[in-house]
Amino acid sequence: MVKLSVIVPFYNVQQYAPDTLRSLRANTREDFEFILVDDCSTDGTPDVLARAERELPGAVLVGHEHNGGLATARNTGIDRARGEYLTFLDGDDWLAPGYLPQLLAAIEALGCDFVRTDHVQCTGRSRSVHRVPHGRRGTVLNPREAILPADRSTSVDYAYAWAGIYHRRLVDRGLLHFTHGLRTAEDRPWIWKLHREAESFAAVGLLGVHYRRGVASSLTQIGDVRQLDFIRAFDQVIEETARDAEADKLLPKAVRTYCAIMAHHLGQIERFEPAVARKLRSMSAAALKRMPQDVLAEVMDSMDAQRAARLRRVRRRSVGARTVAA
Questions:
Q1: 3-class state of residue 7 by DSSP
Q2: Cis omega before residue 149 (within 30°)?
Q3: Helices (DSSP H) in the chain: which residue ranges?
């Protein structure tokens, strides 16, 4: 009987994969499995993983014939997982020794659908602790209660899939899979769905995941068209939340978060290739038009002036273009 499945996608992380795999070796247990998903790497990552398959107890190596992105790679791992519980790790991050047994003990003691944890962010040699934005620790709650308020950071804004552990019943209910093909912001529709539809969760003050920031190959560092998948991700959040029985209450939070992320990307538009920057502006204008306009108006009126101005400029440019075309 496999107690815990750890799903670890890898893509062109030859430099970091050995650290990741060493950290898994420091967390082995006879009832743990480690599903290593090679998302069609083109560097030396496959060789590193082939050695791990032989040397890491509980390793299961799965290879993609085509690169599908992080969401698709995680789904492959979920489909292969046999554990009563599941968790995630990215192929360039690492775990503290003995962390996984503590994580498993936490969710078993609480008996809830999923548990969220703090993490350590690592940028070069700098380390900082990032905590789940949820005040009550070790208390089982309804996840819907952790979505609001709209104007503060809440658990749905802490969208890291690897910062937690999840009971298999979430897989059986169709709540744990990611939207196929999303190349960035894949955690956003996922975390919203969990908080809207799962029955119980808790946050715990457990540190063990080390999240590596500033990796040159990471999509957060690359200004190409894949970054624009955040629009498809948040469109899904808005669409699914609009169908919720409490849509009137939840949509302001969803729209506000969408607008904040959009304003962030527009504020860093110079890092995008020129064609991608133009596409970001046009896609943002179209997305603003798709949002519930009454909610959008309230959100923009309550945002800080700088971010609201960026969004309004995009909307005006879109209106002007339509007028010229007419």
A1: strand
A2: yes
A3: 17-25, 45-55, 70-80, 99-110, 169-172, 187-197, 229-242, 247-267, 274-290, 293-302, 305-325
pLDDT (tens digit per residue) in 227-285: 999 999 999 999 999 999 999 999 999 999 999 999 999 999 999 999 999 999 999 99
| First-last CA distance in the chain | 66
Burial 19-47 (b: 16+ CB within 10 A, else e): ebbebbbebbeeebbbbbbbbebeeebbe
Q: What is the largest CA-CA distance in the chain?
A: 68
Helix axes 293-302, 247-267, angle to 10 degrees: 60
Rounded-to-integer distance, Cα 198 and Cα 69, Å: 25
> What's the whole-model pTM score?
0.93
Give the C-alpha separation, 168 to 172, whole Å: 7
